[in-house]
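User: Can you help me understand a structure? I only have the sequence.
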Amino acid sequence: MSMNLSKNILLIFICTGTLPFLVPLQAQPVSNLDVLDSLLVEPIVQSIDSLISEDTPLMLQNEVDSPVGKWLFRRLRLEFLQRGMDVRDSGEASPPDSHYTLILDASEIAILYRGIDTDLLFRTTRYRRTIETMLSFYIRNNHESIIHSHSKTENYSDTVSRSQLNEIENKMLDFTRGEKTGSTLIQKIFEPAVVTVATLGVVYLFFSLRSGS
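Assistant: Let's start by predicting it. Here is the structure, written out as tokens:
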């Protein structure tokens, strides 16, 4: 009887330990670059759409000398060109009489993955992804008057699995890679130990009551 009890406990322990790996895969989350596109590009495009007609020349000026700022400048230029707009560099010697200038004043991002779940081997299995952006820009008319300004911090967060981290990052753009922080030492050791002890206790109690009946 004791041999069968030991086998049953071992079997249930193995099943409960491997159960997380049998759960269906999560839906593919949006990439970090797509999130940045939504938080940085879309506010600028919406502002331009609401203020400027497509046939009005638009001068672009970038004051952000960083990989994020350079990517954002190229991304905006491509977006406006695809719309058929007359896009020009702000350093042009003879700008048209009637034009608007978009100035990128600041753009910063921070991407963090915080461990929230671990398996029985203390490996982080799920992360809370947080993306924070700070964007500042303004639009001037040809009289050098500011007609629109924007300065705002935005946040995005969701949950991703360990296996999805490589899929949501762009290997060609370093700024899309996040910083990983694992669970605390107490979470890594204490919480799995409590779950394991509780599971074994329930199993032992179940078979003890069964054998006594």
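Now, to help you interpret it: Strands lie at 58-62, 87-89, 100-118, 124-141, 146-161, 179-181. The first strand starts at residue 58 and ends at 62. Let me know which part you'd like to focus on.
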